[in-house]
Amino acid sequence: MSAPSRIVPLLAEGVLAVEGTAAPSLSAGAAQPLPAPGRYLVEPLPEAPLTVTLDERSVTIRPGGWSGELGPSRGGRVTGRARDDLDPGRDVTVLALATGGVVARATARAADGGRFTLDLPATVARAPYRTRLTIGIAGSDHVLGRVDAGRPPRAWGPAPEAPRLRIKISTPNLREAPLWGDSHFAASLAAAFERLGRPVGVDCMDAWYGRTAPEDAVLVIRGRQPVQLDPGKINLMWLISHPDRVEDAEYAQYDRVFVASDIYAAHLKDRGLPHVEVLHQATDAVLFGGVAPPETRRSAPVFVGNSRREYRTMVKWCVEQGVPLDLYGGGWDGVLPPGYLRAPSVANRDLPALYAAHGLLLNDHWDSMRDNGFLSNRLFDGSATGTPILTDPVAGLEAVFGDTIATASEPEAFAEIIRSCLDDPTPFLARAARAREIVLGAHTFDHRAATLAAAVDRIAAG
Description:
This is Glycosyl transferase family 1. Keywords: Transferase. The chain is α/β, with parallel strands linked by helices. It has helices at 122-125, 181-195, 248-251, 262-270, 313-321, 351-356, 367-372, 377-384, 397-401, 411-423, 426-442, 445-460, and strands spanning 6-12, 15-19, 25-26, 30-33, 39-43, 50-54, 57-61, 66-74, 77-84, 92-98, 101-108, 115-119, 131-137, 143-149, 165-168, 200-203, 217-222, 234-239, 256-259, 276-278, 298-304, 326-328, 341-343, 358-363, 389-391, 406-407. It has 12 helices and 26 strands. Helix 4 (262-270) links the parallel strand 19 and strand 20 (276-278). The chain is globular and about 70 Å long.
């Protein structure tokens, strides 16, 4: 008779764990199964207490209102502090979570300042392999940190051949890959590695774990959720967006962290995180750099993007200011007046010609990217085609592109730039030509593959 399934009362970075095979139900949102057994992605992230039910048993997870930190950990003993900030007088339970479930518990006593000592079982602490444990507060979404238990040998000497690398992306599976930007990003990067004579593989989420192909090094293109790493391999992260989704404890798991922002890389270094390097996004020079400039361009800006369930600012401004727009993207039905939407999607291979056919390319950023200096990949792709670009102001733009890309932060200036570009495109095309030189000279996936390959080789050589 199989053991009953149990809920692990911890929501770790949006991921819920279950011990057993049964699927949980939620009082709000949905639990999407992940490739790792017993793991579910909760969407959307709860803002109020969430009740999780499994086999007629329920637990409540409260988001927010918790604090704590890990202290020294050695010899199978983990110490730290944990506290319920909304009820500071009560004791709380601390959990150690491994891949298979909870391996240890401890009580953080309020009367002792929330201190706890968590003793790991010998089967975990003295195992001849390393296990990465997540330490968190039961009934919460608060992860105190992560620790490694066990004693794995890790000896990286000079390799007789280049370490074998696999790229992990957040695309759910190959069937959905054409709809995900991460998939096209990784495919272009993999092709650049091939041109270096360094074949690599790309894994969607459903193939992150359990792969039998040789794998010495892993490059995680950090997306919506973290990847469970094997500390016996070389582990690299390339953070290209959404820095608000990554905690310091996750960065600490990697041998090297590459950040697509000068500003945010400096921020991480100021926080004491080692092994952080700047690596901006890039373009596929074969795809975007090879498009022939047209004799004439459409006298309209083009915007490629889904609605994201909102009236995106630049699209809204076009409508309000009465400027023309060719829009490609999904989710716009019923949002826009007639005449703007050209198609619900456009294939990645068709983007270079689409950009180059227009007099102006519009680009915007997520708030967290804009504020932290993460330059959109579309800036590099569009510039590679020699197309003028108008974007929202983003920190760090001039450090990479100089004055070659126009910006607007309010609707009147936005409309004026569009009209000026369409009426007299010559100065805008001259700036776009300089942007193209900048991108093709230093910001292609061939440049990035060379940087990443060199980093893997240095780490492998010890």
